[in-house]
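Entry 14. Ran structure prediction on the chain below.
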Amino acid sequence: MVHRVDIHEELKRAFLDPNLQGVPEGKLHLGQRVSSCDFENTTLTLASGETVQADLIIGADGIKVRLSSLT
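Output, structure tokens:
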């Protein structure tokens, strides 16, 4: 188990540090409520209605993670 703040900070560092080599460019969507998740197609639908497709989805909303129940 890892504290979500530590995960958030490491993700931010990996995505935003231009000096890291081999890390693909990414976009973080912090503080967003997810209304549905398609694990097969790695697609999220946010509560705002925006659909986000990604290579990787990480649910880091704390010990009461709900991402797996949104399929």
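The helical segments are 4-16. Will compare against last week's run tomorrow.
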